Amino acid sequence: MAFLRALRGAPSTMVAFVVLLALLGVAVLAPPLLGHTANRFDFAAVSASPSPTHPLGTDRLGRDLLARLLVATRLSVGMGLLAEALAYLIGVPVGTLTALVGARWRPMLMRVIDTMIAFPGLLVTIYLITILGPRLGLVGLAVGLAVPEAFRAARIVSTLALSIAGRDYLAAARVVGVRWPRLIVRYLIPNMAETVITSFSVGVSFTIVAFSGLSFLGIGVQPPNFDWGRLLSEGVDSFYETPAAALGPAAFIAVAALAFAYAGEAVARAANPRVWTAAQPARATGRSGLAEAVSSSSAKSGASDPTLLVEGLRVRIGDAEIVSGVSFSIAPGEMVGLVGESGSGKTMTALAIARLLPAGAAVDGEVRLLGRRLAAMRPRQLARFLGTELAFVFQDPMSSFNPALTMGRQLTEGVREHRRLNRRTAAEAALARLSEVNVPAPRRVLRQYPHELSGGMRQRAMIAMGLMNEPRLLICDEPTTALDVTIQAQIMDLLARVNREHGAAVLLISHNLALVRQNCSRVLVMYAGRIVEDLASDRLLSDALHPYTRSLLAAVPDLDRPRGTPLTTIPGQPPTPAAHPTGCPFHPRCPLAQDRCRRELPPLDARPGGQRVACWMAEVEATV
Amino acid sequence: MNILEVHGLTVRYGTGDRALTAVEGVDLAIRRGRTLGLVGESGCGKSTVARALVGLAPVVAGRVTLDGTDCTSQSARDSPRYRRRVQMVFQDPFSSLNPRMSVGALLDEALIMRGGEFRSRRRRAAESARLLELVGLPAEARSRYPHQFSGGQRQRIAIGRALAVDPDVLILDEVTSALDVSVQATVLNLLRDLQRRLHLSYLFISHDLSVVRLMSDEVVVMYLGQVVERASTEDLFTRPAHPYTTALLKSIPSLHGRREPAPLSGDPPDPRRPPAGCRFHTRCPVGPLAHPERTRCIELAPALGPESGPHRAACHFAEVSPG
After folding, report:
1. Residue pair A341/A513 in contact by the 8 Å Cβ criterion
2. What is the CB neighbour count within 10 angstroms for residue A381?
């Protein structure tokens, strides 16, 4: 079964399962098999040291310690499981109910749960055991241990259930007509399972330890019953004569606690179908061996040195090559667009240029900013250089500001760090920049926190922050995707002005072809980690040669398109970075694909007019 | 004829100072077998209209009628009868499908709601295979889980699930906003094809005017919870009457033509405290900002033009072309 296969995992998991099974086996078998031995007095061997007949020695009454330890397993582990099961039997329904009762009753229930959690759990347990213990014995102990755990479980479940209750798939199910009981069973519980199982198993190990602790202190199990905690307390008394008497139970407690925690995590992971069903099946096999085909003669940008020069840039994360040999340059004051669909590698290219890649990503190739090789710079020097010469504007201005700091702090941080300005001068500079990007009431904005600003204002502030150091290059990654069109138009106005007045070069990354065409002088089209076409944006509609560029243009629902006709679609799906097809990465979806396209990777060849195209059929296309 | 009608729809969340009237006095009519487009920017209340129509948002005033039958009450919009006729597809196919259920189980669940012959497991299996084929997915998709599909495929699954109860009306809330442009094209084509084959009526909600233009027969434009213009698609895109519509049209980047400077300045106001009079007057390029003498915009909320006219705009200074 797939689920069982998913349970197999790291060696540590396997060890945890084996230990767990052994513990459960001992818990079941030891009392009937060894119960008699564990309680037999042997006054001939009182407080004996370990020997072949008594591997752990004997206690003060001559009882075999190993037998006692094994027999005690049932009570210790059983109590942990019983108390925790009891806790979740109460906690899960209470937590779920809290999430479902509606806004009127929820705060009250939440407050009750929170208040109960505020009491130290162990004190509640001791209190309950003192009251219930004498009357109910072991059941009283279980209840005492379960109550604080039940509230903890309720708290976790209510938070989880609340977040799931807000998800779209629950709303979608309600619209289809699914009723609450089924929503709980099929939607809430499976989606909480991972966390609930983990917290249950952690709870079991906690309870085993807590129970042992109570018994150790003499509050827990009363003679003639005994558990690991009791054995430990007896063992400690005679530690200097027979250390094994104390070490044995101590080791069992620790091992059992760890085994439950580890095994629970593994079961929780396996409860997620993502783990035990394969991801999308790879369509194409093999990888392009000769990626060097990208022609190294990148577009020359006239006499002046380019602001940015990228040559043969590659980014690998694990086994997947996300960016496969990207080369381009941006002239001073130029605004260049980088377009592509999700997964094309456009964002990774930008992050690689700005040295912002996640840890674990391997970068190869050459990036020169203002003629300086970034790879050759020392870390501190590089940070300073990039901090002043390059600014990065992210898609989501909410998540790219620190929500805990005022805008003023964040805007001035950079200049105070890199230019050693004092607070006052830095604040003045920030004010000037904010007014420049049309932020009304900039003085107030400096005192505000990111969440107090609208999306458009945050994006303006982000650009203002980028401009603080007068950078020579501004990389904007989908800067308007999260914004409304009327605000998008304002931000594009602003970027155009920054580009014109500051002379900063701009790399605009976007999925929106129309936006890039209207705002940039040149368009780079990316597909499957490569640039497939590079041409002047005013020639995009008339002279684009790559079939991908042309299909993409035909798929845009432009306002000038006749309404009745269906949109052009591109068959198939883009390749995943883990499985690039051989030859041209676009060939499985290309209407013009020939045998050569399936075998050989087309280089990004220069054509007249500064255009570059990576397509074997470009020549044919151009003459049609 | 109209299949689904909404009159004076008002939706309010919360009470007292923190109350948010997300939608106020909205009239809509979806014609049988046709598509009504609903456009507007974030916070204009278009998604709230959608949610109210499928019983996910509370209606505090107004009327909802399905084929002339009043369905305004929460219980009516929650009833199996209503749900079997009015279905919704959500924006994000990554979050609108339960990750813990296989595609087969997701379809099965919706089919059970139909009762009758669909009480038979065999019948449901056959029907779900037919649904998958209808939305262009292989029958093997049944045994797979949502995460094993791409965004476009997931949206197909969501559409198939909505169709499982054999509805007459589909509420499509930003169904292609989360998709890439080439994938968007396939989903839009699929929706047009399904409409023709199954004679479905659509409420097509989007912030993207160019997509709305392709999909709709009529279009309603919303701003801050109210309808500001209603017209046939042709009229709206060739002769927009409301200054907000005009500004929206000018803001869309186009593959042809030059970029125009941003037509509007400033942000939309806080929907909790909408401006008095015309709600658009704080940003309007033909209102009191540009013409201080036009105080009427601040004093009086404009009505949505003559009830009978096919092209209506809620503006004191709109130039609605007759006919």
Report:
1. no
2. 11
- Looking at per-residue pLDDT, the higher value among B19 and B211 belongs to B211
B209-262 pLDDT, tens digit each: 999 999 999 999 999 999 999 999 999 999 999 999 999 999 999 888 888 889
Element (DSSP H or E) covering residue B219: strand B218-223
Query: In CATH, what is the architecture of B2-223?
Result: 3-Layer(aba) Sandwich (3.40)
Select from A217, A248, A275 the last residue of a domain: A275
Cis peptide before B292 (omega within 30 of 0): no
* Domain-embedded: residue A47: no
Q: How many CB atoms lie within 10 A of CB B233?
A: 19
Instruction: Please report the DSSP string for B83-134 in residue order.
Output: HTTEEEE-S-TTTSS-TTS-HHHHHHHHHHTT-GGGGSHHHHHHHHHHHHHH
Residues 237-296 of B with CB under 8 A from A: 237, 247-268
How far, in Å, CA of B77 to CA of B53, rounded?
Answer: 7
Inter-residue contact A76 to A142 (CB < 8 Å): no
Cα–Cα distance, A298 to A292 (Å, whole number): 13
Helix (H) or strand (E) holding B12: strand B2-13
Token match 């503006």: residue?
B315
Could you give the CA distance from residue B74 to residue B54 in angstroms, rounded to a whole number?
Answer: 9
d(CA A52, CA A470): 81
Whether A465 and A476 map to the same domain: the answer is no
Q: pLDDT per residue over B63-75, tens digit each?
A: 999 999 999 999 9
CATH for A324: 3.40.50.300
Look at residue A101 and tell me if it is in a domain: yes
Looking at the structure of chain A, the number of domains it has is: 3
Amino acid identity, position A421: L
What was the pLDDT predicted at A121?
86
Judging contacts by C-beta atoms under 8 Å, the chain B residues touching residue A440 are: 266
Distance from the Cα of B309 to chain A's closest Cα (Å) equals: 24
**Strand, coil or helix: B23:** strand
Report yes or no on A126 lying in a domain: yes
- Which contiguous run of DSSP H or E holds residue A117? helix A106-118
Distance CA B15, CA A286 (A): 61
Tokens of B84: 């079997």
For the record, the structure tokens of B225 come out as: 């919870």
Identify the DSSP state of A376: G
- Across the interface, do B255 and A558 touch by the CB < 8 Å criterion? yes
> Touching check for B18 and chain A: CB below 8 Å?
no
Q: Which of B145, B183, B257 sits opposite A277 (nearest CB)?
A: B145
Interface confidence (ipTM) of the complex: 0.89
Rounded Cα–Cα distance for residues A181 and A575 (Å): 41
- Sequence-ordered list of residues with C-beta below 8 angstroms from that of B88, at least 6 positions apart, any chain: A172, A175, B50, B53, B54, B162, B170, B171, B172, B173
CB pairs under 8 A between A and B: 207
Q: How far from the centroid of its chain's Cα atoms is residue B321's Cα?
A: 26
Structure tokens at B306: 């003559």
